[in-house]
Amino acid sequence: MTPSLNSIVSRLHARHLRLLIEIDEHRSLLGAAGSVGLTQPGASKALQEIETTFGTTLFNRTNRGLEPTAAGHCVIRYARVVHTDISNLRHDLDAILRGVGGRLAVGAIMGAVPLLMRAVSQLTAIQPEMSLEIIEDTSQSLLTQIESGRLDMALCRTSVSSSPDLFTSTFVQNETLAVIANVNHPLRDEGTLSLEQLAESRWIVYRANMPMRVQLEREFHDAGIRFPLHLVETTSILATLSLLQNQPEFVALVSIDVAKQCVQHNRVCILPLAIKSVSDPYELVTRRGSQATPAMEQLRSLLIPIEGDDVGRDGTR
């Protein structure tokens, strides 16, 4: 039986959490002990205390070192959350005491990067001593990082999560999509394009089951056209731009904000193809139950000037 909450709280110490993280990093007691300032016997005793506290084995001894058990992975994940929260607490407390700064770790999916960068530019002008970490990744990866405490918030979509109840989300804006291509693409000067005219093009797309990919597949399905077989899959805008510049016959589906920013630098052109289906909107997502810091609130106000209700995907407010 899992020990009671009171039992765990009374016996677990901050040094235990740090030791768990270091064991996960080093996969050895010796390496972890050195990182936390303990002898190997001291680290072994501390690990025994931790396992006794949780009432289960957290690591298996293998020829590759200490391998976390399923319970170990769970405990380590939450140890990282607590450690990150304490670290953020220190930064935020220091900022409050000094009246400036703070720290913020924020993520965005590719299409929302221009929107986030505009808000971040405003934020750094208001708070020049603020430290920021910015991560661009898929919604699934960003949600995992929010859950683990590695990110404070992100512009992404909670619709891809199998556990949407873990998050609180606020609508930011709808996403409009555009098809971009090499500046010398033969169809760039057409008045209006149909999907049939691009059906034989080489498409650069997100991998299967991602929202933007699903939307493109829906466009082909609704038009009664077979979806292209020979694709290039990537979530990197740099890879997309490089391919488009090197291959005039390639086309790619991106957000209109990304497309406009690339066009400004004469990197690509926007083809006159209207995307009919509607994608999931951008949401500003945080971990449910987490306390918003002053830095988070400042960024939120810049992204959502007139703030609406926080609405979870499960319909709670």
Automatic annotation (TrEMBL):
User: Sorted alphabetically, which keywords does the UniProt record give?
Assistant: DNA-binding, Transcription, Transcription regulation
Q: Does the keyword rRNA-binding apply?
A: no
Transcription regulation as UniProt keyword:
yes
GO cellular component, alphabetical, reads: cytosol
UniProt domain HTH lysR-type: residue ranges: 15-69
The cross-references to InterPro entries, in alphabetical order and at most eight, read: HTH-type_LysR_regulators, LysR_HTH_N, LysR_subst-bd, WH-like_DNA-bd_sf, WH_DNA-bd_sf
Member of which family? Belongs to the LysR transcriptional regulatory family.
> In its UniProt entry, what is this protein called?
LysR family transcriptional regulator
Q: Which organism is it from?
A: Pseudomonas guariconensis
